[in-house]
Amino acid sequence: MLKQISSSKSGCQVEAKATIPCCVLVVGWSAPPYNGMSTATEIVLNGLLGEFQVVFLDIADKRDLSNVGKFEIGNILLALRSGIQFAYLLLKKKPRIVYVPIAQSWLPFLRDCLFLIPARLANCKVIIHLHGGHFGEFWAGSGRTMRAVIRFSLGKAARVIVLGECLRNLFDGVVPRNRVVAIPNGIPDFGNVRVSERQNAPTLLYLGALMRNKGVLELLSALPVVRETIHEVQLVLTGEWCSKGDYAAAMEIIIRNGIESCVRFTGTMGAPEKYELYRAADIFVMPSFNEGHPYAILEAMCAGLPVVGTDVGCIPETVIDGETGYIVSKYDAATLARRITTLLQDDELRVKMGAAARRRFEDFYTDCRFSEKLRAVFRELT
Asked: For 153, what's the count of Cα atoms within 13 Å in the CB-facing half-sphere?
C-alpha cells in the first residue's frame, strides 16, 4: 500500500518550514496486526510529519503473527510486491532520504534488501532503524555469502539508529560507529493511570506477543511460587499466541500447577482497554530472553507501575534496578518469583517504585522526546 502522508495526530509541536520540505520515503507496517512494529511505524511517521514530505510504503502482512518470518509463498509474494512498489516510488517521488527498519534474521533481511539495495543504487541517503537487540547474533551466525549481502546492503547507510547506548557496537564490522546513533523509543503520554490503593486482588500484568522467547513460560512457572506467599495473586496476559507449541507448553504448566483460576488471557486489545489493564495491575512483568526497547515497558512506566524485567537489550538502561523496578537474569524463574513477591508484600515500596518509573518516563521516553531526536538525525542529512 502506498500513502503520501500530509498531516499528523501527534501532540508534539513541530516548527513549520517555509521552504519545500525534503521528500522522505518511509518503509514500515500499519496495524492490524497490532504489534511493536506497527506502533513504531506510527510514532516515526508522526515524528516526521510537519517538517518533511513523507511518503509511506506499507509492507504489513495483514494475517496473524504466526506468519511472521516464515518461508512460505504468501510471504514471498508480499515481499516481491513490496519491492516493486518501492522501486516505483523511487522513480516517481525521487526521495532524498529512505528510512528502512531492518530485520535480524535471514529471510526478512533478504526482503529488506529489496529496499536497501535499490536505495543505495539510486544514491539516496539511507537511514537504518534497528528495532531489536540481537543483530549481532544474526551477523555472527551468518555465512560468508550472507555477510557479503549484509555489508553491501548496509555498509553505505548514512545513519543507523539503535535503541540504546548498549547497542551501539552491534554494527561493528558493517557500519562505522560514527554513523550509529542511539535513540530510545518513546510513546504518547496517556497519563498516569495508576491508582494509589489496590482496588482488587494483587495483579501481575504481561503485555506482548505470547511466546517462549518472551519468557511467558518462566512467568507461568514463577506464579505457583508467588502464590505460596500471596495466595490470591492474579496474572493477566495480553497478546496473541505465536505458535501452537508454545500455547500447549503454557497450558501444561498451568494445569500441572493447578493455577487455572488465577491466570487470565485477554487476547489483543486496543488502547482504551489496555489502559484499564494498567489501572488494575500492581506490577508489570516482562521476563524476555531477547529484546530491544519494549514499548510495553514504557507504557507500564507511563502508567506508574514498577517493572520486573530481564537483563537483555535496553531493559537495564530503562528499568533502574532497585529504583523503578527490578532486573533479573533471563531463564531465572526463582529470582523472578522472589522479586514479584517482594513488591506485592510491600505496598509502600511498590508505590514508590511506580512513582519513580513514571518520573523516568516523563524525563526520557515520551514520543515528543523521541521525535525531537529523530528529526535531528534527518535534518543532519538534508
From this structure: 21
Q: How far apart are the first and last CA of the chain?
A: 26
| Tally of domains in the chain | 2
What is the total residue count of the chain? 382
Q: What percent of the chain has pLDDT over 90?
A: 80
Question: Higher-confidence residue: 66 or 110?
Answer: 110
The whole-model pTM stands at: 0.89
Given a cut of 90, whether residue 86 has pLDDT beyond it is yes
Task: List strand residue ranges (DSSP E) for the chain, in order.
Answer: 2-5, 23-28, 53-58, 97-102, 125-130, 159-162, 180-182, 203-207, 234-238, 263-265, 283-286, 307-310, 325-328
In a domain, 194, yes or no: no
All three cell numbers of 313, joined, read 537489550
Kindly state whether residues 160 and 82 are assigned to the same domain.
yes
Print the domain residue range for 278. 203-364
> CA nearest 206: which of 300, 302, 112, 346?
300
309: CATH: 3.40.50.2000
